[in-house]
Design the sequence.
């Protein structure tokens, strides 16, 4: 199984703390490296990183991250990082054949989140999205969250930052077929901006987008200073498999 990490965006809400969001350290480890290690832990054999803003810095860091995680890591540049994140999905997915895991470089998860996605049945021409029913969690930023409305059997009926009614929040982790980048391209052709959510809505409208409920598992979108502080507080507790091994190597 391949995986795709989106790491092309400007990351303006963290710019006062870090000049390059994917390389922002969390408990001493870059956010992007945490994502790569987590994907390796659920069986990814290769990780594609979609780069854009400060692509040179990010790409220069990838060989060390690949060695540390014991996995193949390759970069694919987005032509214009100012475009919505769906363009990053399209650019990265061109390097992938078949199904893939998809995460954002600034989202961090306890191991159960990605394990649930990796083992859930995947629609043959669709996508699975990890979602959290705890929409009022203090770890969720309501000003920036992508909301999800679900129907029968966990099907997605609506997704976006401004939908009127919702019962879950998008956690930023997906397991997708090649139908997802195709749906984003279709959304762009229809005149939509080209966000990942635009493509998800296209698949939802055709009954091919479903949720995987994460239950009580932990996750956070490290999008600003407040979220970084919260993540620093919790990450060693919820990702011991990553940070225990890091401390053991540092002690050698």
Sequence:
């Amino acid at each position: 199984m391949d995986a795709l990490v989106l790491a092309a965006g400007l990351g303006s809400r963290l710019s006062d703390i870090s000049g390059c969001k994917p390389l922002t350290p969390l408990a001493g480890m870059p956010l992007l490296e945490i994502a790569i290690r987590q994907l390796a832990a659920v069986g990814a054999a290769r990780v594609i990183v979609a780069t854009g803003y400060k692509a040179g810095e990010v790409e220069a860091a990838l060989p060390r991250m690949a060695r540390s995680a014991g996995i193949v890591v390759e970069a694919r540049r987005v032509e214009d990082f100012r475009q919505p994140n769906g363009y990053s999905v399209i650019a990265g997915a061109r390097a992938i054949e078949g199904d893939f895991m998809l995460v954002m470089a600034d989202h961090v998860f306890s191991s159960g989140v990605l394990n649930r996605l990796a083992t859930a049945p995947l629609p043959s021409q669709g996508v699975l999205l990890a979602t959290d029913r705890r929409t009022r969690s203090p770890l969720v930023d309501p000003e920036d969250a992508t909301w999800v409305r679900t129907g029968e059997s966990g099907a997605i009926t609506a997704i976006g930052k401004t939908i009127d009614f919702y019962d879950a929040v998008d956690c930023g982790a997906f397991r997708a077929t090649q139908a997802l980048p195709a749906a984003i391209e279709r959304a762009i052709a229809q005149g939509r901006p080209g966000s990942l959510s635009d493509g998800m809505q296209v698949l939802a409208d055709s009954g091919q987008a479903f949720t995987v409920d994460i239950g009580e598992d932990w996750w956070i979108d490290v999008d600003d200073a407040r979220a970084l502080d919260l993540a620093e507080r919790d990450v060693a507790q919820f990702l011991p498999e990553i940070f225990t091994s890091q401390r053991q190597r540092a002690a050698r």
Remarks:
- Residues 247-252 have pLDDT under 50 and may be disordered.
